[in-house]
Amino acid sequence: MAYRTPARPFAALLLCSCAATPFAALAQTNDTQTETDQAEEPQQRESALDTIGNIIVTGTKTRDPEDVQDVALAVTAFNADTLEAYKIRDIQGLQFQAPNVSLDQIGTSRGTANFSVRGLGINSSIPSIDPTVGVFVDGVYLGINGGVVFDLFDLDSVEILRGPQGVLFGRNVTGGAVVINTGNPTEEFTGKIRAAVDGPLVDGGRGGANYTVSGVVSGPLVEDVLLFKVGAYYNNDEGYFTNLFDGSNHGAAETTIIRGALEGRFGDLMLRAKLDYFESDGDGPSGQNRGFFRRDTFDFAIDEPGFYANEIWTGSFTAEWDVGPGTLTNIFGYRDYTASTRGDIDSTPVFLFHSNTLTEQEQFSNELRYAMSFDRLDLTVGGFWFDQSLAYDESRELRRDLPVALQPPVFFGGGRQDHEVIGVFANAEWEFIDDLSLIAGIRWNQETKDAAVTYITPRAPCSVVAGTCPTGTQPFDPATETDGFIDDVRFRNLSPKLGLQYEFGNNQVYGHWSRGFRSGGYNFRITNIPVFNRAFAATGDLFFDEERVDTYELGGKFQTDDGTFTLNLAGYITKVDNMQREVNLADPGAGVVQNILNTADATITGFEAEGRMRVSDSLIFTANIGLIDDDYDTILFDISGDGVIDDTDLSLRQPRVPEVTWGVGLIHELFLGESEILTRVNYQYRDEFAYTDDNLGWIQDISNLEANVTWVTPIEGFSLSLYGRNLFDEVQAGGDTQLPFGGPLSTGNPQPFGAFPAGGTLSPLQRGRNIGIEALFEF
Question: Global pTM?
Fold first, then answer.
């Protein structure tokens, strides 16, 4: 596919260049102050840029956290000051800061992660599908994709680790891992109050305002022994979009977060407990049917706003004990998640396909590790346990536009699963020759899933969550079974890593091979029983198999002696065996059929570069680029849907693989006596990519421009910010699922596979241009 550079990236480059010129001139003037001027300043103001450039990585799980430039790993990391400068409010906001990274939410179920890194991602809201990019909050793995892409506040750091991280993090990190560390209690009494309002202020007639207020207080209860932190967050979003069906605002949401932490320090022992309560509810998906509306607009019309309602409890208890040559760390985690949704899935002004879901998840986990540091050896060994119960209900109502006598009965079904994981791991970095280190690690993992699945078909009302749905009997007989099945599966595997790192001065080059696995399992959304039975006949299994990923990576990290310039490079070849995909097929009978299958073996080749240059005391430039090429090696399933497996399948693009991502940015600091102005501009381009395996669904390219200007006022601790996101007002959708309902509105009734682009779609819209103002008071 030919890649043509769009015109707007050059406009962004010009904007960055023009903005930099007066700042650089002013910086030069400041640098040439006379000694008399310097003498009149008894103390030079601390630069915010100094802290932005100091990034420590915790994802390597060594005894002492390492500087990002010292880690032999492709990682983009953000500390608290960087996140503040970028005005990050959720994980999704970080996808425009790193190459080859897409941290979208799927949109059909608000807050459900649809992440992809280096072309390895998912395209589903089915809760039984495991991620390719694992998310870890305060060391606790989030067991499902639901409830991941929600509001964040009071963060210490976020790290995006690219490539398989199976040794240290286990399964479901074949694409990478996102490590989130929330704020810890502080030794001194501090606080922070923040209030903001934003919305489509310059786009008349679209949506309403979005209000946010949060506060955090932290400090000692007993000096040097017992510390605390409490925080609260509230957001009221009136809805960004306008529903053309009735002219109402759509996308409304209300979110409340309450968080507390307590930390005790007893000599060499540290104990820290954190508890987080999250509640959010609002409208269902803002779904655009692209058989009705052009995909470069925010136009949509749905006859029912739908809803979502989530409640999440998350807790962790961390113990760290400095003993012998290392630190013994134990992290216990707990999460309780409940979510209900209703969505207008057909995304039309006619009642064709609406759906309800209910998801309940409870998980416990514990990781115990001992990280040791010797003269030439860093060694980490540990064990991990994870236990999760998951239950899911779905109902579907189709063709309520028809007379009552002709309306199909309601579909009911879903699935229940008990899920246990145990693992042991070891990872070492041994400097066996001066400046040359061997990197080696291995993890043994065992995963067990016990499932009971009820086909989502027309049936009497029932609930899998409540235990009132039939699930079939054992042994499974496809000739007679019409309700579902009961089954269990166990996977055992080894995830190794082997590599070398050579350090010279402030620089390093490295190379390694690593292997990771994405969990196999069960489909909770089976609507086409004959297709499922054919898959069972072919494999003899009721589950889909796990996916194996091998990555061979070469990289280098280079930095000048004064740290003003850094350049990080990485090239990789990724081999995927038993690629696991959700294959979507439009179906007039069920709306959409979603089969989870092992579709192919594939190869993904890529390159990444990230650079940062501090051209003066007051100005930093950043840039990144990512290139990916994808090829199918062997086709295991007819992904084109033409009835045969041939070159047509081999020539398709792999889903979730944008060929190009690149970006540039700047951060500038301007001192004005007792105040200062901090300016940040960032542009990121992401190429179009196929969303569905048959390549009927596509997500268009996006040119994302963000900017914010913060005035640190003469009032101590008080600052004001003006910020804008998606300033080019680009249209972006969380998905592009094909539906059998499409056609121009002028027909008076949706028709199968209408005028543009290739039939109807469910394409949940993401926000366009968003401009806001924020006040922050720190004490």
Answer: 0.90
